[in-house]
Automatic annotation (TrEMBL):
Residue intervals of the Sulfatase N-terminal domain: 29-412
Stated name of the protein: Sulfatase-like hydrolase/transferase
Alphabetized PANTHER family for the sequence: SULFATASE, SULFATASE N-TERMINAL DOMAIN-CONTAINING PROTEIN
Pfam families with a match to the protein in the record: PA14, Sulfatase
Keyword set, alphabetical order: Hydrolase, Signal
Membership in a protein family: Belongs to the sulfatase family.
Native source species: Aestuariibaculum sediminum
Residue ranges the record marks as coiled coil: none
Domain of life: Bacteria
GO molecular function: hydrolase activity
C-alpha cells in the first residue's frame, strides 16, 4: 500500500458526480458544514417551532426559520442526530476528529485545549484534493505559551478567519466588545480585528464565507468549508440593521474590505436591530385569555432575532451556490454543537434566558450539559440537490463523529481505521445499507438539570456530576451522578417517551439490555488522565464464549490510500484462516493491506500491559476500544505500549495493517500482567 498525501488517490475515486460549469475539473462535490452554537433541536421551525405555531396557543410563543425550513424541504432532516457531548469543546473535538468521547483527547469542559495531532475533517478532505477553510469559532488551539499548537492551519485547514479562543465567541462585536470586552479576530495566524468596527459576527463570518466560496468556484479544486457560528450562544446581542435583501452574489451580506466598513452591515448602531416579527410580539403570560397579553421580554426578542439572523445567513449562502451554478455539486449540512443553553450574558435589568420560553429543547427534557435527549439531540438538515431526496427524513440514530467518514465517502474514499463513525451516505441518499452508528457520550459537570415545568418530574433538578448515554435502536440508556461501573442505566424508549419519564429498567426489568449496556460502555472507550471517570478501573468485560484453536482469520486488500483505511467495511480480495502469522506468507502476496481478526484469552482479571510495533502502519482495536494507533505520524519500528484492565476470559482483537514492502513478520504484539507470562501473536485464537 502506498500512503499518498496528494491527488492521484487511485482507489479513492469510486464515486463520480455531476460537476458545475465553473468547476470543470472537479468530479468531487463541494461540502459546506454549518455549525451553530447552543442552538436547540426545538429552535428550528420544521423540527418544533412550526408545531407550536400550529397549536395556536397564545401562551406558547413561537419563532420562524423560513430559510432553514426551505432547506429541509429541499433536503433531508435527521431527527435522531446526536452530539458526541452536550457542550461545545468536546462536541467539536469529536466532530472534527471522527472519534467518540471514549477516544477523543478533548473531553468534558476542556475549552481551548489543543486538538490532537491526528486525522481531522480538515486534513482528510485536504488529502483528498479539497481546498479547505474554517470560518468562525475555533476554541481548540491549545495554550498560547506553547504557540497555539493546534490552530486550524495546523489541523488541515488552508484558510482560517474567525475567533481563535473559546471565550472570544462570547462577544459578537469584536471591536466594540459591548458586553464582554473587545476580542481578537484571526486570519490564518495574523490578528486582524483592526477595522472591524460595527461588524456583528454572524454577518462577518457569512461575508467572509461568501467571499471564499466565490474564489473557490473559479478554481479547479472542490472545496470543504467548516462554518462555525458563535451564535445564538452567550451574550444575546442584536445586529446593526435589517439583513440586506436578495442574498447570493449581488445581495445579502457582502465583504467590502474597507477599514471601518469591512462588510455592508457595518453601519448604524451596534446591538440595535430587532427583527420586526418579534419587536412587538406579545403572549398570554398568565394563561388567561381574559387579561391583556404582555410583550415578550426583550431577552427573548433578542434570542429570536439571533436565530433568525442565522436563518437569513443560511438562505444567503444557499442563494450564492445557485448564483454560482454550483448548487447541484455542493452538499450543505446545517446543525448545532449541543442542546440549548440557559445563558444570555446580559446585564442586570434583563430577565434571565431560559430555554423553556420557546421550548428550545423541543419535545425532550434536558439542555446543554445534560445527557438527556434535550442536551444531546440536535437539529440537522442535509441538502444536496439530485443526490439527497427532497423533503425526506432519516429516523435512525446517528451522531456527530459520523461526519468524518461521511465526507471521505462523499469524496470516494474510506475513512481512517481509527474513526469511530460510519458513513451516513446510505441513510442520506436512500441507497445502500446503512451501518449502525455508535451513539455514545460521557461527560461530567456539577450542578443540576433545571426544574422546568415542561420536564418530566423525574428529570427536574437531577444531580448531574458524572454522566453517560448510550443508544441501542430505540432504547437510550443514561446514568447520572455515576458512582461506579455497577450503577444501573435508566433505560427509555425515546420514540414513544420523548420526555424520558418511564424508566423501563426499573425494578430489574430489561436485565439483558442493562447488562449489555454496562458491558459495551466499557468496551468502546479508553481512559484519559485529564478526564477521570469512576468506572476507569473497572475491568473490560470478556465475551461469554470459549476458544480452543490457535490462529486467526485474515483478509487481504489492494489499493492506494492516504491513510490506513477502515478495512472492516471493505471487500477483501483474498481471505483465509491460519494457525500463525508466518503462514499468511506476506512475502509472496501481491496485496499490501490486511485485516486480522482473532481473540486473546486473558487468564486472570487484572491490569495488562501491551507492547506493539510494526514495519509500516497499523491500528489495533480490542473490542471497540483503540488499543494502538500506529498510523498518523507513526515511524516504522517505534514501539508503543499501553495498559488496560481486563476481565478474565475471551476478548476480540482486530489488527488493521499495511505491509507494502512485504515484510515476513510485519508486526510484533505482546501482552502480560504482573502475574502472567508474556503472550504474543502466536497466542491469538480464532
Amino acid at each position: 500500500m502506498k500512503l499518498v498525501s496528494k491527488l492521484g488517490v487511485l482507489f479513492c475515486l469510486g464515486l463520480s458526480f455531476a460537476v458545475s460549469a465553473q468547476q470543470k475539473n472537479t468530479s468531487k462535490p463541494n461540502i459546506i458544514f454549518i455549525l451553530t452554537d447552543d442552538l436547540g433541536y426545538g429552535d428550528i421551525g420544521v423540527f418544533y417551532q412550526n408545531e407550536r405555531k400550529a397549536r395556536d396557543n397564545r401562551a406558547e410563543p413561537w419563532t420562524s426559520t423560513p430559510n432553514l425550513d426551505q432547506m429541509a424541504h429541499e433536503g433531508v432532516m435527521l431527527t435522531h442526530h446526536y452530539a458526541a457531548a452536550p457542550v461545545c469543546a468536546p462536541s467539536r473535538s469529536s466532530l472534527l476528529t471522527g472519534l467518540s468521547q471514549g477516544h477523543a483527547n478533548v473531553r468534558d469542559n476542556q475549552f481551548d485545549k489543543a486538538l490532537s495531532d491526528n486525522y481531522t475533517i480538515g486534513n482528510v478532505t485536504q488529502k483528498l484534493g479539497y481546498a479547505t477553510a474554517a470560518i468562525g469559532k475555533w476554541g481548540l488551539q491549545g495554550s498560547r505559551e506553547e504557540g497555539w499548537p493546534s490552530t486550524p492551519n495546523k489541523r488541515g485547514f488552508d484558510y482560517f478567519y474567525g475567533y481563535m479562543r473559546h471565550r472570544d465567541g462570547h462577544e459578537h462585536y469584536p471591536v466594540e466588545g459591548i458586553y464582554r470586552g473587545a476580542k481578537e479576530v484571526w486570519e490564518n495566524e495574523t490578528e486582524v480585528s483592526k477595522g472591524l468596527d460595527k461588524c456583528y459576527t454572524t454577518d462577518l463570518w457569512t461575508a467572509v464565507a461568501k467571499k471564499w466560496i466565490v474564489e473557490q468556484a473559479k478554481a479547479e479544486k472542490p472545496f470543504f468549508m467548516f462554518l462555525a457560528y458563535d451564535t445564538p450562544h452567550a451574550v444575546l446581542e442584536l445586529p446593526t440593521q435589517e439583513y440586506p435583501i436578495g442574498g447570493g452574489v449581488d445581495g445579502g451580506v457582502q465583504w467590502l474590505g474597507t477599514s471601518g466598513k469591512m462588510i455592508n452591515t457595518a453601519s448604524g448602531k451596534p446591538d440595535s436591530y430587532m427583527h420586526p416579527d418579534y419587536a412587538k410580539a406579545t403572549y398570554d403570560d398568565d394563561h388567561n385569555e381574559n387579561t391583556p397579553e404582555v410583550a415578550w421580554p426583550e431577552t427573548y426578542k433578542r434570542y429570536a432575532t439571533s436565530v433568525r439572523r442565522i436563518d437569513n445567513a443560511v438562505g444567503d449562502i444557499l442563494k450564492l451556490l445557485k448564483d454560482l451554478d454550483i448548487d447541484d455539486n455542493t452538499m450543505v449540512i446545517f446543525t448545532s454543537d449541543n442542546g440549548p443553553s440557559a445563558e444570555s450574558y446580559l446585564p442586570k435589568g434583563y430577565v434571565a434566558n431560559t430555554p423553556d420560553f420557546f421550548d428550545s429543547f423541543g419535545p425532550f427534557d434536558g439542555l446543554k450539559r445534560d445527557v438527556l435527549e434535550g442536551g444531546e439531540r440536535l437539529p440537522l438538515i442535509a441538502r444536496w440537490p439530485g443526490k439527497i431526496p427532497a423533503n425526506s427524513k432519516v429516523k435512525t440514530s446517528n451522531i456527530s463523529h459520523d461526519w468524518l467518514p461521511t465526507f471521505t465517502d462523499v469524496a470516494g474514499c474510506k475513512a481512517p481505521a481509527i474513526s469511530d463513525g460510519v458513513s451516513l451516505m446510505p441513510a442520506l441518499t436512500g441507497k445502500g445499507k446503512q451501518l449502525e452508528s455508535l451513539v455514545y457520550s460521557e461527560y461530567v459537570f456539577p450542578g443540576k438539570t433545571p426544574g422546568y415545568d415542561d420536564f418530566s418530574i423525574n428529570n427536574r433538578n437531577r444531580n448531574r456530576n458524572q454522566m453517560q448515554m448510550i443508544r441501542f435502536n430505540d432504547m437510550v440508556g443514561i446514568r447520572y451522578d455515576i458512582q461506579s461501573a455497577d450503577d444501573d442505566f435508566e433505560i427509555y424508549d425515546v420514540i414513544n417517551d420523548t420526555h424520558q419519564s418511564q424508566n423501563l429498567a426499573k425494578d430489574g426489568h430489561l436485565a439483558d439490555l442493562q447488562k449489555r449496556m454496562k458491558a459495551e460502555v466499557l468496551r468502546m472507550r479508553r481512559t484519559n488522565p485529564t478526564a477521570k471517570r469512576p468506572y476507569d478501573e473497572a475491568p473490560v468485560p470478556a465475551l461469554k464464549k470459549s476458544v480452543s484453536k490457535l490462529g486467526f482469520k485474515w483478509q487481504a486488500f489492494t489499493g492506494d490510500y492516504p491513510w490506513l483505511p477502515n478495512l472492516s467495511v471493505m471487500k477483501p480480495t483474498k481471505s483465509g484462516k491460519v494457525s500463525n502469522l508466518e503462514k499468511i506468507d506476506f512475502q509472496k502476496r501481491e496485496e499490501s493491506l490486511y485485516l486480522i481478526n482473532g481473540y486473546i484469552n486473558i487468564p486472570n482479571t487484572g491490569t495488562y500491559t501491551f507492547h506493539f510495533n510494526t514495519v509500516h502502519k497499523a491500528v489495533v482495536k480490542l473490542h471497540k476500544a483503540l488499543l494502538f494507533d500506529a498510523d498518523y505520524g507513526y515511524q516504522s519500528g517505534d514501539e508503543k505500549s499501553t495498559t488496560m484492565v481486563l476481565e478474565k476470559g475471551v476478548h476480540p482483537i482486530k489488527i488493521y495493517l499495511s505491509n507494502p514492502n512485504q515484510a515476513k513478520i510485519p508486526f510484533s504484539l505482546t501482552w502480560k500482567s504482573n502475574t502472567s507470562r508474556v503472550f504474543n501473536s502466536s497466542d491469538i485464537y480464532r
